[in-house]
Write a structure and sequence with these properties.
With 613 residues, the protein is α+β, with helices and mostly antiparallel strands. It is 38% helix and 15% strand. Bound molecules: adenosine-5'-triphosphate and magnesium ion (2 copies). One magnesium ion (MG) binds next to loops. The site of one magnesium ion (MG) has 3 residues, from strand 10. Subunit of the heterotrimeric GatCAB amidotransferase (AdT) complex, composed of A, B and C subunits.
Length: 613
Amino acid sequence: MARIAPSVLRRYLFGGQLPAGGCLRQPRYCRSAAPSLSTKRYHGTQAPDTSTDSALSETTIPFRKQLKDEAKKRKAEGTGKKSKQNNQKLENWELTVGIEIHAQLNTERKLFSAASSSINDVPNSHVAFFDVAMPGSQPIFQKETLIPALRAALALNCEIQKTSRFDRKHYFHWDQPAGYQITQYYEPFARDGYITLYAHDGIAAEDGDEVRIGIKQIQMEQDTAKTISQPGDIHLLDFNRVGLPLIEIITLPQIHHPSTAAALVRKIQIILNAVDACVLGMQSGGLRADVNVSVRRRNSSSSSPNSYGGVTNLGQRTEIKNLSSFKAVEDAIIAERDRQIDLLEAGGVIEGETRGWTIGSTETKRLRGKEGEVDYRYMPDPDLAPVVIGDDLVSHLKNTLGILPDQDINILVEDYGLTTKDAMSLLSLNDGGTAEYFRNVVEEYLFLSPEEDLEKVGKLCGNWVLHEMGGLTHDLADEENPLKMTSSGSCLIPASELAQLLHYLSTDKITGRTAKKVLAELFASGLYTRGHTTNSVIYREGWWFTPLSELEYEGLAKEVLDANGKVVDEILAGKQGKVNFLVGQMMRGDQDGRVDASKARERVMKLIDALKG
Ligand SMILES: Nc1ncnc2c1ncn2[C@@H]1O[C@H](COP(=O)(O)OP(=O)(O)OP(=O)(O)O)[C@@H](O)[C@H]1O
Ligand SMILES: [Mg+2]
Ligand SMILES: [Mg+2]
């Protein structure tokens, strides 16, 4: 990236002025679509005029999509294989992983200012003086941010600390106006938790039925501004995100398999969502993971305690920052593990480094040497008082945590009749929105048919929500998926319409084939015209199921017997099994599912008996 012009930086740092494009780059790089910081909040500091770079406005493909396409291309070219050969090496080396998860808390305000935390709004429209470090501005701790933070910590079995404090962690980057991040370093608000992962969570087979991973601590901290990277080394800055409240969850280095690491991140996302601590998951950028990776020779004899729960001498760790999908967590660990083993086996030394990973790549890339405590010059923030948390608040939150995901899975499996795999998928898709949608469909269905068995309804609805609806959009990338469900479980196809459709299906008012056609119509009408319902589609198309009349059965049976004289002779000669063939022939041409197998058999037998007689 080219340097920010010193004059622009100076105007910003000392005068709080941003160019109208809302970014620190010279005006020609700034897109006019990104409006300036609210002048209301800026006391009318006049932002310089900017002209739009016309080349930029041509860029319409989202960056994430480009990365995905690039990854697909590379995979197709066959450049993405390497790790399989390493199985033998893995017998000699043990992998160790510790993860830091940054999750955006579910609050209305930022951590130290009253600016709104609303996302996906016009860039740079929710920014208070303090958020951009205007000289003279002060942090004001927004107490309500503690509630989701505490709920998260309790769901992860942590001990809540009576007193915690905020510290400054110094480093300069364009996404952090103050030159330091306010975090909790010396005294975090939660410590010593754990999470239990089961086989159904997707842990590695080597971890057996369950594995418990310790959580060293959870701290509250500020988020940074969002950098929106564009092709051509152009980076736009959105300060709406700066100062949003995050929790950083730090695990002990107790993970030894890449798939277990991915399972841990997935499960933490599900848990945070279940207790309403965080509503946005990785898919929406509300959760990011840094993975710390080291390897050591198996059976290495020397051991010494360290600060991570008394574990023995681990290898030198490297850290891969900012992973934004479960797959990226797994793939990046595999790539880094293999790189470290290769390097050590070749006689090299692992350096403490921060490394990066891009979707679809097969290698991690060095970004910089790992910052140490000294580099960060941690110091207690003199502008913030200690946070004192009362026992009454903690016990109230503990008692009102609600149903946790392990329990939720049990309910979906035991009561709703789903497989564990489907229950997991429902809970993890769309940040939990798909499970909510599923429950809404079941509820609507039971409203139409209260006597129905819950397990039967659950199975039917689960199958349609996950598989039939999923099939409508499986070619599309997440961000393009028009069926994306909100956290409250609504989407383009209303739950009530799907419930009505499934009710007609299970009461034989329509056939399975018709139900699929209606679903596709509801999807299309939701996209283009709106207003169609299950009923209006079926009435319009005349798709109600009408069973064959006796006369029609007889006509069809005769047709089939006439066309298969040889088979009829075989049956007459005693080969009863051939009757199935004739029934199959009757059903074959039946596009609308109107032929009932037992009735068809009855008719065939009647005609055969007549021939015998
Ligand atoms: N040898 C090791 N191998 C693998 N993981 C390790 C090792 N030593 C420590 N870790 C993990 O590294 C992580 C360290 O996170 P922590 O936030 O404490 O420090 P940091 O990475 O230096 O800080 P930050 O990245 O926030 O600036 C923990 O998850 C820990 O389990
Ligand atoms: Mg950390
Ligand atoms: Mg770290």
